[in-house]
Amino acid sequence: MLFNKIEFAFFFSTVFLLYWYVFNKQLKRQNQFLLLVSLFFFGCFDWRFLGLLSFSIVLDFTIAHKIFNSANHKKTWLWISIIANLCFLGFFKYFNFFLDSFTDLTSLLGFMSNTWSLKIILPVGISFYTFHGLSYVIDVYNSKIKPVKSLTDYSLFVSFFPLLVAGPIERATHLLPQIQKKRNFDYTKSVDGLRQILWGLVKKIVIADNCAFYVNEVFENPSDFSGSSLVVAAILFSFQIYGDFSGYSDIALGTARLLGFELLQNFSFPYFSRNIAEFWRRWHISLSSWFRDYVYIPLGGSKGSKYQSIRNVFIIFLLSGFWHGANWTFLFWGLLHALYFIPLLITNKNRNFLSFSDNTTFKSLLQITITFSLVTFAWIFFRAESLTAAWNYITLLFSSSLFSVPEIFPKTVIGYIVLFIMIEWFGRNNAYAIEKFVFGWKRIYRISFYSLIALIILYYYGKDFEFIYFQF
Length: 472
Known about the structure:
By secondary structure, the protein is mostly helical. Helix content is about 65%, strand content about 0%.
């Protein structure tokens, strides 16, 4: 059941009405209802993995209480949770990767080895709900939060359907208090939620899905196109993955707001960043902050020597790449971003640009262009099927045909992207681009603006492109 499909609209409309008009009188019943519909939503993808999700929930719920009540074995219980969670994630997501890598290595060394693998189905959302559980247990261990008494409340925290499949990665310190507190319908917040859902659908259906058609064509057969067309396709993929993932996050945040919850912001106009450090403060914020708080800082962060800081940066970027998938392309993508980041760390410029400036200068536009170019180059490795395919793509890109007229130049799609960039630019100081975009307009103009957006979405509705981050 995808956010951009009509089935979800019917599903959520039913949930919304029952939630506010039938189960609104008692918080306990309201949470139980949300838990049931969340498990149903998850089961619509593959009901066989409901058992794995339930086991993960019960495991971390139990261990958190063991940690809280233990006098001498807190660390032991913590490591049981960490190892168990990572073993489940490692088996389903990385088993065949390690097996294939070992086979390739032994073959390279001249040893004969039998090639075999398991047909493992990756449970949808496993990377996200595993990190939810780990953050909860670690926060209990660090006394940042007490273990929740209600299994229903904790289960809802882990499996809340707007964020279960592709994030954002929530913190127990942020979401659990909202689950445990009575929620009242707020018309203003609901309208704001609908507005953010609308913008999320624009990102997914109008921007990402239209880019995907051309991106897939070029990346599957790069030798059929000129270097200039490969550049266009790489740029289109940059907007595809941004529209796809940030669009999902916008729909998730808007949906949660309609139910009375405020989720963590996951994107903050990353393509307007002026260096790579700023980009990572604005891209997939919930993941980058998770690695910062639970890996980078425990390793010492930037408090040690420069060598230790550089080591820690490499670790979190490689982990970030590996989190995205069992392929050397993701590891190289993470390594590339680490190499981008290190010069900023050495020169102490990694904390520059903590907020957007109202003054736009030629220098800032140049910095944005350079940063976007570096990010787009790295996306080639993220999108490619293998390192060999990525290298082949880059080799063809930097051929003599780089300066020829591109065969792929979808004027309509590029027109939408230009308009999209303009709206995002003027709304870059808000939580999402159209949060306050038409507030000063007359009512008839506001209605016309939203109606036009809805008509454009309906016009392009129906393309069968799944959300990219479902595979992670």
